[in-house]
Design a protein that fits this description.
- By secondary structure, the chain is mainly α.
- Helices cover 74% and strands 0% of the residues.
- It has one domain (2-55, 64-121, 164-259).
- The protein has helices at residues 2-39, 41-53, 65-69, 72-120, 126-129, 136-139, 144-160, 164-175, 194-209, 220-242, 248-259.
Length: 261
């Protein structure tokens, strides 16, 4: 039990740092990537025109290539088609990568939350595994707590491969935080929405397994913010239901370990 308590405290404090840090990585990635796109427009234009008009050296064009390329209508056409399309593709790739990473952060954090609940309140898992506890071959000469722990571990192993929606539903089923639970001081900042999470999960699935080219996501910033707040929302259930709290000194110590300082 002592070992379990150490694991519970450590993981609870670790998530206190992991969630904002990992989402900060996404923010940094997006800012650097999007800035790079804007700064590369000129070089992309030069690359495009050079490749297209390189045959001009063979005397194919009736008029001078430089004069032709300097025409505003020609430049506008290249920017809006060749260069513009490539920039849109880059935006789409950045958006897809950002969503997949943000989704994985929440999924991993949610799984850790479930593992913590299994140690701090294993009896809350009984409804999920009760059907497996009645097998005579499993209960013979074994203590109930040992059997329950074994079945919970099997359930956790299966849940790790399940969708983020299934994990979220299980956490609600185990914690039962009550109607209206919202850890945010500003209630307008965030409200949990299962349909919204399903929608984002479907977007992630399409980004990875879709058969068409990725498209720019108009709601990507809102989706990332929702996922970040959802990770905090799930993590905060452990405080609401089991009274886990952050010790600043312990949190900083764990942060130093994570950073290798």
């Amino acid at each position: 039990m002592h070992a379990n308590r150490e694991y519970i405290d450590r993981e609870f404090h670790a998530e206190f740092w992991r969630i904002p840090w990992r989402f900060m990585y996404i923010s940094t990635f997006r800012k650097l990537a999007l800035t790079g796109i804007e700064q590369s427009m000129t070089s992309l234009f030069i690359e495009a025109t050079t490749q297209f008009f390189m045959s001009g050296q063979l005397g194919i064009f009736k008029e001078d290539s430089k004069a032709f390329l300097s025409r505003p209508d020609v430049q506008e056409w290249f920017v809006n088609t060749y260069v513009g399309d490539r920039i849109e593709e880059c935006h789409a790739i950045i958006d897809s990568a950002s969503l997949v990473f943000a989704h994985s952060i929440v999924d991993g954090s949610l799984y850790n939350d479930l593992k913590i609940t299994s140690m701090i309140a294993p009896t809350a898992w009984e409804p999920l595994v009760i059907g497996n506890l009645a097998r005579i071959g499993e209960v013979k000469d074994r203590a109930y707590d040992e059997i329950l722990r074994s079945q919970i571990d099997k359930c956790l192993e299966a849940l790790e491969r399940e969708s983020i929606i299934k994990k979220a539903d299980r956490l609600f089923q185990i914690c039962r935080p009550g109607p209206g639970f919202n850890p945010f001081v500003d209630r307008k900042q965030y409200e949990y929405s299962r349909p919204r999470l399903v929608e984002i999960d479907n977007k992630r699935h399409s980004a990875i397994h879709g058969t068409t080219l990725p498209r720019r996501m108009e709601t990507i910033e809102d989706d990332i913010s929702f996922l970040r707040d959802t990770a905090v929302f799930f993590w905060s259930m452990l405080n609401k239901v089991y009274g886990l709290q952050v010790d600043p000194a312990e949190a900083i110590e764990i942060a130093r370990e994570i950073l290798g300082q």
